[in-house]
Design goal:
Blueprint: H1 2-9, H2 23-51, H3 77-91, H4 97-123, H5 131-154, H6 186-211, H7 217-237, H8 239-245, H9 256-274, H10 283-300, H11 307-310, H12 312-331, H13 341-347, H14 352-373
């Protein structure tokens, strides 16, 4: 809105407003705006959550040290969503369809998390939606996003070809061939794309959700991941940089830099209140929204295969749960003392603050590696 007003409408009458036409300047504005909204709105929201008795329920089989966290206000993810949406609406070019897809993903997955958190409050325990219900809703949102992208692909404004880390010219296309109208060929043409979309989006949203078990862990890692994603969005949308790095350029994706910068600012602001000892938890409404939107941005800028490095710790947390469950079902033995893996290190005697700090370090190293891989091609 401010971009439209200040740059498109008022800039012809006041030259200095041309500054708002630069993506880099609006990116900085979005980050600062999101940070300020989160910091200023945080105390009011925490107070309201306490007044409404929206407190955290602790899993019964979790570490005993977490029992003191029971009753801490949750659903603080609403603060994160607001802090991302408002700056994006203000500073992004709202004619850009990618911006709306990213915001739609944020709201869509956030709505699933909100419903899950609300169900937990109704049941008065740490069990909301069933795993199947949550999974089906996540698949539905992923397929809707995939359908929109296929419509853009048909118009020539989106490609289903992917960048592959470390390889310059190998760009596999998820659509094996064009749809010829024959209904029998429909699954063959579109199934690989939809399956891949579900793997990326559902995987990323659940990975962040599983990581959200220690004060500041998930949101601190999101600061790192969204910062890396901000840089990659800018590079993917910039003609010269994309050509130099031999990236699959996505025209218009530079506007996603503003959305990602808002994620950075909102995450930093929320970390102020979520740092150990946490005053508020993000809940599923925050973790699902952040994970889903991060996966969506990766799909939009054609960096789906780089996402596991950008959010490396999230992937490790997800894999630890998969391995733990698979091992117990097949062998009746556990690999870790407790999953996700951050609880395993707690059970080994690590202090919560030490687990958080070391996981942040690992996340930062993996994000830097992801950025470095753009040149190692």
């Amino acid at each position: 809105m401010l971009y439209w007003l200040l740059f498109e409408k008022l800039q012809p009458f006041f030259g200095p407003f041309r500054l708002f036409g630069y993506v880099t300047f609006r990116t900085a504005c979005a980050l600062v705006s999101a940070l300020l909204i989160s910091l200023l709105l945080g105390p009011w929201m925490i107070r309201k959550l306490r007044e409404l008795s929206i407190g955290q329920f602790i899993r019964e089989d979790g570490p005993k040290s977490h029992e003191t966290k029971a009753g801490t206000p949750t659903m603080g993810g609403l603060l994160i969503i607001i802090s991302i949406l408002v700056p994006t609406l203000c500073w992004a070019n709202l004619r850009n369809v990618y911006v709306w897809i990213a915001m739609g993903s944020l709201v869509g997955f956030g709505a699933i998390g909100f419903y899950d958190d609300y169900t937990k409050l109704i049941k008065m325990r740490n069990l909301g939606l069933t795993a199947r219900q949550k999974f089906l809703l996540q698949v539905l949102v992923a397929m809707i996003i995939g359908f929109v992208l296929l419509l853009l692909n048909a118009k020539g404004s989106y490609t289903t070809a992917m960048n592959v880390p470390f390889l310059k010219s190998f760009r596999p296309d998820l659509l094996l061939h064009s749809f010829d109208g024959n209904p029998w060929t429909f699954p063959l043409v579109f199934a690989p794309f939809y399956i891949f979309m579900i793997l990326v989006l559902v995987g990323s949203t659940n990975a962040v959700n599983l990581t959200d078990g220690l004060d500041g862990l998930a949101i601190g890692l999101m600061v790192i991941a969204s910062s890396a994603m901000t840089a990659i969005c800018y590079l993917a949308g910039h003609r010269e940089f994309a050509t130099y790095l031999e990236l699959q350029r996505v025209p218009g994706s530079s506007e996603l830099t503003i959305f990602c910068a808002a994620m950075v600012g909102a995450s930093l602001g929320f970390l102020w209140y979520n740092a150990h000892p946490a005053e508020v938890f993000m809940g599923d409404v925050g973790s699902l929204a952040l994970g889903g939107s991060m996966g969506t941005v990766a799909v939009l800028i054609k960096q789906e295969l780089l996402l596991p490095f950008i959010g490396g710790v999230y992937v490790i947390e997800l894999l630890s749960v998969v391995l733990q469950v698979g091992s117990f079902k097949l062998r009746k033995k556990r690999i870790f003392k407790m999953a996700p893996i951050h609880h395993h290190f707690e059970m080994l005697g690590w202090k919560e603050s030490k687990v958080i700090a070391r996981f942040w370090i690992v996340g930062l190293v993996m994000a830097l590696f992801a950025l470095a891989s753009l040149k190692l091609r």
